[in-house]
Amino acid sequence: MFDWYASMDRPARRTFWASFAGWSLDAFDAQIYSFVVPALIALWGITKTQAGLLATSALLISAFGGWAGGVLSDRIGRVRLLQLTIVWFAVFTFLSGFTQNFGQLMVVRGLQGFGFGAEWAAGAVLIGEAVQARYRGRAVGAVQSAWSFGWAAAAILSAVIFQTLPPQVAWRAMFFMGILPAVSVVLIRRAVPEPEIFEKARSAPPARIGAIFAPDLLRSTVLGSLLAVGVQGGYYAITTWLPTFLRTERHLSVIGSSLYLGVIIFGSFLGYISSAYLSDMVGRRRNFFIFAVGSVAVVLAYTQLQISNLQMLWLGLPLGFFASGSFSGMGPLYTELFPTRVRGGGQGFCYNFGRGLASIFPTLVGLLSTRLPLGAAIGAFAVGAYLLMIAAAMLLPETRGRELDAVGA
Questions:
Q1: Fold exhibited by the domain 9-179+213-398
Q2: CB atoms within 10 A of CB 266
Q3: Which residue in 343, 338, 372, 96 sits closest to 220, CA to CA?
Q4: Spans in the chain with pLDDT lower than 70
Q5: Neighbour count for residue 31 (Cβ, 10 Å)
Q6: Is 206 buried (19+), middle (13-18) or exposed (0-12) by CB count in 10 A?
Q7: Most distant CA pair in the chain: distance in Å?
Q8: Distance from the CA of 137 to the CA of which of 62, 96, 107, 399 falls in 20 to 30 A?
Q9: Of 270, 275, 370, 390, whose CA–CA distance to 332 is shortest?
Q10: In what helix (H) or strand (E) does residue 2 lie, and over which residues does it extend?
Q11: pLDDT tens digits for range 145-200
Q12: d(Cα 102, Cα 57) in Å, to the nearest integer?
């Protein structure tokens, strides 16, 4: 079961854990916002539409950060960019705690999003290039599972802080804790080398910024981007509003909603790992299809059916499993779609173009929730996103087992 890890040499293992830490810390800082939304609605009197707009602004700007970060990683190196981006999003998460109104928080959240997007581009290509082709799905998917650890840390911290501090102080304290990921940069700088295949490609002149739109790569870029819109559109429609849905429509307390989120987060971890293995076993395309269909079924049941709180608690396990598991196949697929000279830029653009369009989903959910129940609004946009994911996956080529040297330098 763990042959993929045993096959790694020491530098590759250090790369794995650096990428794992980066993703976990990325998730920690990104998910803090979802836990402070109810407090901001109560304290600042902002509407659900404005709350959704705050989420959208960070995700939209992260799309530009992701592409810029991917291009930079092809020029200055994967590891160096990973260090810079972790510091960036940690600092701006921390500064969010000093904001005094909606406008200030939107600006700071947007700047945080820029680093948030760039970090994914650096980490995904770094681990994708460091492992053997036959284990790529498992290794990159295992790194993706780090998101559930960061999410869990934010959930636990939220439960503790909001129970021990008054709301007007607690939400600021949550953002202040976002500075912690910056500490990891010292370890990454000392321990992680650049991938060998990247070092070999550095002798060639850098590719044009728009090379991923050349005729030979345009189809991969377009379909890869649409796949990312589907995966992330469904995910952000659900997770951005989940704490608010549980507290306002299901009338759960902070502690009560934390239990439900805990079940969902555990399901997410299982989904990441299962999808990582399935991606290598059944192929990238079939894996996306399985998780998209599962997501549609569970989201509809979770948000539309009249079920008891206990039933909803247990349904959170497959909800987290399918919604999060979809991400595990993205890193391996993008690594195998693009040649080394533009791999960072290609991955960064596809994933973050998807994130940019998906960023409007929280706002649209907020708008629709003024006319429909919040659960119905979440379900409508999540299902639409997953149907797009299925269509894009069916049109993409199967890349499982592709050697990166064969993709091109």
A1: Growth Hormone; Chain: A; (1.20.1250)
A2: 16
A3: 338
A4: 1, 184-190, 203-207, 243, 246-257, 405-409
A5: 23
A6: middle
A7: 62
A8: 62
A9: 275
A10: none
A11: 888 888 888 888 888 998 899 989 999 999 998 887 777 666 666 677 777 777 77
A12: 12
> Residue 391: its pLDDT value, please?
94
Strands, DSSP E only, in 194-307?
none
Rounded Cα distance between 402 and 336, Å, is 6
Q: For 142, phi and psi rounded to 5 degrees?
A: -65, -40
Q: To 10 degrees, the CA torsion angle through 46, 52, 53, 57?
A: 130
- Structural domain spans, the chain: 9-179+213-398
Inter-residue contact 61 to 113 (CB < 8 Å): yes
Query: What is the reported pLDDT for 393?
Result: 92
The model's pTM is 0.77
Q: Are 319 and 296 in contact (CB under 8 A)?
A: no
Residues 346 and 121: their CA atoms lie apart, in Å, by: 9
Rounded to whole angstroms, the Cα distance separating 330 from 349 reads 13
Contact (Cβ atoms closer than 8 angstroms) between residue 212 and residue 221: yes
Q: Which tokens hold the place of 406?
A: 């064969």
CA distance 13 to 30: 26
* Backbone Cα Rg of the chain: 20
Q: What span, in angstroms and rounded, lies between the C-alpha atoms of 55 and 240?
A: 7
Place of tokens 């902002």: 46
Burial 123-143 (b: 16+ CB within 10 A, else e): bbbbbbbbbebebbbbbbbbb
Name residue, tokens 């299982």: 270
Q: Which two tokens stand for residue 170?
A: 């607690």
Whether 253 contacts 358, CB under 8 Å = no
Tokens of 200: 């070999």
φ, ψ for residue 358, nearest 5 deg: -65, -20
